[in-house]
Amino acid sequence: MSREATNGVPCGARVLTLDTMNPNVRRVEYAVRGPIVQRAVQIEKELREGVKKPFTEVIKANIGDAHAMGQRPITFFRQVLALCSYPELLEDNKFPEDAKKRARRILDACGGHSLGAYSASQGIECIRQDVARYIERRDGGISSNPDNIYLSTGASDAIVTILKMLVCGEGRDRTGVMISIPQYPLYSAALADLGAVQISYYLEEESCWSLNVTELRRALNEAKQHCKPRVLCIINPGNPTGQVQSRQCIEDVIRFAKEEHLFLMADEVYQDNVYADGCKFHSFKKVLFEMGPEFSSKVEMASFHSTSKCYMGECGFRGGYMEVINMDPQVKAQLTKLVSVRLCPPVPGQALLDLVVNPPQPDEPSYSTFMKERKAVLADLAEKARLTEEIFNTVPGITCNPVQGAMYTFPRIALPQKAIDKAKEQGLVPDMFYCMRLLEEEGICLVPGSGFGQKEGTFHFRMTILPPTEKLKVVLQKIRDFHLKFTQEFS
Amino acid sequence: MSSVQDVNPRVRRIRTPVGLQSLAARITEQLSQGGQKPFQKVTDVSSGDPHRAGMPPLSFVRQVLAVCLYPELLGEDSLPLDVRQRAQKLLEACNGGSIGSYSPSSCGIPQIQKSVAEFITRRDAGIPSDPENIVLCSGSQKVLSLVLHLLSRGEGLTQTGVLIPLPCPHTLPMLLDEEGLTPLPYRLLEDQGWALEPDQLHGALRAARGRCEPRAIYISNPGNPTGHVQDRKTIREVIRFASSEGLVLLVEEVFQDSVFGRDKTFLSYKKVLFEMGEPYSDTVELVSLHSISTARMGECGLRGGYMEVVNIDPDVQQALKNMQAPSSPPILPQLALEVMVNPPAPGDPSEKEYTQEILRMDDILAQNARRACEFLNDLPGVSCQPAMAGLFLYPRLNLPAQMLEEAEALGVEADVLFCQRFLEEERVCFGPGCENGHDRNDLHVRFCVLMPPAALEEVLTRLRSFHLRLLDQFPH
């Protein structure tokens, strides 16, 4: 064996180390799945092994996974997918005709009539057409071109793809991407991985986490000194904050994007999750086009949707799409090329997406059950949103904005100075210290606000509103009791 | 408005796809709208996609998936008991008992990581595999992209280089482009059945000098598209090479269960590595890849695969395992993978049918590979090494000089022109060898041979008809 390899690696030394690997791949602790979740899993193991704890189960209210918390899938969707998976079931008269019809149509569009064949990289053509029609219906008739629809492996995949496309330049010309604080950490992680510059703009906690263009301008102007701002990301309804942006706000953002030549990325995966009175989902595209040709022909935009949230909750399928608006044809050709590298998105996810955009119609046998199930899920979430805000606001030291939409609450917690000091002593961020204690003492797993970003000196946690109502009530009461005890202990 | 100048230069540098599959799709579309062309449908065999070509999925797999999708079927007596029991077990492994949840970890469902580890241990005659070293992913293309992304650093002369076979899988070059890696081809020897020759490895490394920083070697075994099965001697040589030259071994072993060549056996790189003992067995860094896009399963569209990492630095391994977070791989393909590595056992109600279906698949593949190879070797100007495994045949074409000139005049590669004409005239889509790394001096085409035998006959008949017409058109 040579003393030193041709590439300089000393004999016997590891080739791949933290120093020699891609420097952009950080060992990022994704708060949503990070150390607190690892500890939760460990505690669950201990409980199974019979270790005595002050609680009998760990309630994982850390991740936006509806089915994991007991939400039922939509019957119609699962029937069609089962038929697609094993078409012999098409002979079974236990399945309704409309389910069979959808299954046949999907299978006809698949190579060899099988979900197992590769599809076109941009997604199955007739499904993209169905998505375009869905968007047109949703947006009051504003036309959508199937060629501008790209099916993806969940919305996350599409989001990362667009970010990857738009990152360029060196040094002060490096692409800057505006993201909200607090934010869903996929964005910050993707930007770190791509070596793009993160431009943070703060949502206003005092006005229900609304977005203020003044703040956008402040963040942008400051960023211009060290990067080239090119993209503005917005999550609506918001994660983790749950705010549903007003129409006026959306218009202001679009106006701002046009003035500053920013590419708008509208993450709208929670578009059906709107609960608060007076709140309504306005798609960015719809508002854009209603603002007239001065905007609708100029502003570049991508909107994202998926099968993971809303009333479906089918995270495990990784179904999603993006619609690109006003993209230069040559740029679009690059996008089409880029998505072809990964071959194709999972076909079952594409099939599920087709059902989401093409659900049972009033004249079809499965319609009433479908509507019943859909209504029940959304009503349940709305009730839990209300309950959460109500109970948290009875706790001195916890301030909770109305959960207008999405699936989370992001209340602010007042932490005594002694607790902050104790946290620092243990090398923990204060809200992580708080959440760890809550986990150990009550078996409730939340995510500290530091995982999402927050104004300096403030502390929050994110809790999902997904546990079943009775369990949620217990969780809320336990958190209330814990908070009072904690405050007492460190006063 | 953004222009192409504003697009990520690395994305711009990704080579432009040849586009035959899009052409095939467009022609299919025209046909379905009643276009003028004479034939009814397009047969696209340019990818390893058995279902597209008409092969059926495995019944047990699809039955289990159907029950997992619609658990009301757990009470369906017409479905075999073992199907329902397996589905029950798999549903219990999912959060909330639903395949709609995220995986419990970003590396996949822990019970399935365990099943995969147990499968590998059995396959490798007891050499242990740790579930912690298994990462599940949405297909081997995604797996590869994660590892390549991890390896990628530097720009220009300091850019990471990866040794890749010539020919390589047609899906590989774009992946390297996307991750900003320099490909360093090592020639496989066509006249020795596409064997790997260590001299070629050294040559590829020498070519890297001053151009890039080589840090990994990619192996496809059994070979895609060559069908070559590496023997123990070759594998040992490659491992020694990787060890002495400081290279990470990336080994794609998707065709491991479709070896049909006489006296050929699949040997996993991991098994050979461990049998070599120290210092190799505890120092050589190895990542092995497998997926459900196999000949027997053919579940390409489900997008399921895994990697096993061996001797990887713990910090690097942790980074690798985090790379899919906060997302996680899709659930359904993980379930299919579990069935693949843990099929019905003797005595189970479905075992007989499962085994029959697998054997039928194996037989068809072997017969088709043999039949098609003989046929190709009978065509003037075409020669084909027999495949020992895998889904593809990869014949060499000696095209008339005039045709080469015509291709040049049109600004396309000659093998692309061949495939394009074949597609337009006969409705069959082959893959041009330039996608696999070959060039005008060494023209090849590839096609997947796993299809119903009657369909293969049709493809071969059309090939002969087209090829003879072509030669007539361009007399020597």
Structural features, described:
The complex is a heterodimer of chains A (491) and B (476). Chain A has 491 residues and is α/β, with parallel strands linked by helices. Chain A has two domains: 154 residues, Aspartate Aminotransferase, domain 1 (Alpha-Beta Complex), CATH 3.90.1150; 255 residues, Type I PLP-dependent aspartate aminotransferase-like (Major domain) (Aspartate Aminotransferase, domain 2, 3-Layer(aba) Sandwich). In chain A, 41% of the residues lie in helices and 12% in strands. In chain A, the strands form four sheets. Chain A has a seven-stranded mixed beta sheet with strand order 2-8-7-6-5-3-4, with helices on both faces. In chain A, strands 10-14-13 form a three-stranded antiparallel beta sheet. In chain A, helix 4 packs parallel to helix 12 and helix 13 runs parallel beside helix 16. Chain B is an alpha/beta fold and 476 residues long. Chain B has an eight-stranded mixed beta sheet, with helices on both faces. Chains A and B meet through helix 2, helix 5, helix 11 and helix 12 of A and helix 1, helix 2, helix 3, helix 6 and helix 7 of B. Chain A: Pathway: Amino-acid degradation; L-alanine degradation via transaminase pathway; pyruvate from L-alanine: step 1/1. Chain A: This is alanine transaminase. Chain A: InterPro entries: ALAT1/2-like (IPR045088), Aminotransferase_I/II_large (IPR004839), PyrdxlP-dep_Trfase (IPR015424), PyrdxlP-dep_Trfase_major (IPR015421), PyrdxlP-dep_Trfase_small (IPR015422). Chain A: Its cofactor is pyridoxal 5'-phosphate.
